[in-house]
Amino acid sequence: MTDLRMFMDTYKAKLEERLFAAVQNEAIEPKLKEAMHYSLLAGGKRIRPLLLFATIDALRGDKNLGLHAASAVEMIHTYSLIHDDLPAMDDDDYRRGQLTSHKKFDEGTAILAGDALLTMAFSEIASDETINAEKRIKIVQRYAKNAGALGMVGGQQADLMGENRDLTLEELKSIHARKTGALLHASVYAGSVLGDATQEEQERLSVYAEQIGIAFQICDDILDVTGDTAKLGKETGSDEKKQKSTYPNLLTLEGAKKALNEHYALAIAALVDSGLKTDYLIGLADLIVKRDN
Amino acid sequence: MTDLRMFMDTYKAKLEERLFAAVQNEAIEPKLKEAMHYSLLAGGKRIRPLLLFATIDALRGDKNLGLHAASAVEMIHTYSLIHDDLPAMDDDDYRRGQLTSHKKFDEGTAILAGDALLTMAFSEIASDETINAEKRIKIVQRYAKNAGALGMVGGQQADLMGENRDLTLEELKSIHARKTGALLHASVYAGSVLGDATQEEQERLSVYAEQIGIAFQICDDILDVTGDTAKLGKETGSDEKKQKSTYPNLLTLEGAKKALNEHYALAIAALVDSGLKTDYLIGLADLIVKRDN
Q1: Domains observed in chain A
Q2: Rounded distance between C-alpha atoms, residue A170 and residue A94, angstroms
Q3: Do B36 and A107 touch (CB under 8 A)?
Q4: pTM score, whole prediction
Q5: Integer Cα distance of A27 and B149 in angstroms
Q6: Contact A32/B149, CB-based, under 8 Å?
Q7: Which candidate, A135, A275, B188, B286, has a CA 20 to 30 Å from the CA of B222?
Q8: Which tens digits make up the pLDDT trace of A213-232?
């Protein structure tokens, strides 16, 4: 087993143990708890938490300090998937090969499970007494900014409004920078705070995060054209069916693959000669551009 | 004009100015911004912010320190109204005499406007640099706890599941303690942190908040039976139509009025001989039990 694989398995397991514990409170309404648990423990690549842990590792910090912030970002990501899948939004029945929350439970419960996970994310960071209050506040602030109207939620709104019309490449980039990039960026930011990055280290990590974010989305769009339904756990061709603008249809499939490699290269370049311990960050970037799901 | 009325008008105006400013960011997607603004500035009694300011005043603190925490609690309250009104939840077309968010805009936008307001609430507290990080973290933590699965969201889930069946008085109390009480309580808590309450003061204020929360909900239930549609801005009799259990149908109308007065008296009793400057807190309690909307 490679060192990267060992790191991923170890911290994915720690994360999932923490996520599991976070929703076990006896006093949570049973159906709500079940819905929160269902989506939170539905598998998933855990890219955001792993980026956070890898960033702390790159700074030679204590990765265990990232557990609550990593759980929080995964709660935010999970809530966004539950809400995005709703009939009034992307109207998807399956996610990661299992029924979406509103199909498994009902729409009201799905909305509330999402609301509860988003709210719990902030409690998860704020109640982490192993981290000083200044750092917790920085992370709350960045998560809220990047997940909110200026970030992820705004990106989803723009995405909804962009369906059924042709977007320019600039519009597409702006949507994805907010919808996907912002939360990846927040994860790396949290890692850089918890690993005590210098200003220069933080700037390099920020470029890495930004470029990885773009590469991640281009890869998603490519997989929607070329991917395997079984591996993806959702139907391919769904972007085309919804007449969504994507990198492949704006740039051609070849052009999208070329752009993917360019952004990957920019992400890696930001880490060169940085003095950071970059093997996990580079390993995760490799996985992001080479994944088949 | 009484001193209480002057206090309310002044701090309502300051609050609304801050809420207005918070959603003016140029970079927010226009339709999302419009929906956030529409619900946030739709009037409303601003009870939670006023309780927060009144609590700081009771502690002889600087009320202006409460502006961000007050805005945040009103953002959380507003998001909860938007989501509660959705077709999958209470399915209401009107709120405060105007169309609900999903009727005015569309369901996707309403869900996202709610998500964005909830997220913005945490950014609002975290970015308030007039308050030290420890206090900000305490408020984030309490807001997240009381608004989440153990508090408001859990109460709404229990409320949804309680429709069309008879609840016991205990179940009804438990639902309202979470759905309405938790956020009122969080407001008073934030005021007590910002006003540097002693342990004893905090405990008294907590009893006040808890009793006011129950009184508030009993009053709501009574108004749904006896109130005036024009003053309420929503139809009366809606609880009966939805076959919701309420205080009047569990206790009779007379019994509910008696319970209202008892909880009011307990709230006031908690403040007696406390050394606190209690005129605004008592004034707000009076308004809560005597309101007609």
Answers
A1: 1-290 (1.10.600.10)
A2: 30
A3: no
A4: 0.96
A5: 9
A6: yes
A7: B188
A8: 999 999 999 998 887 766 66
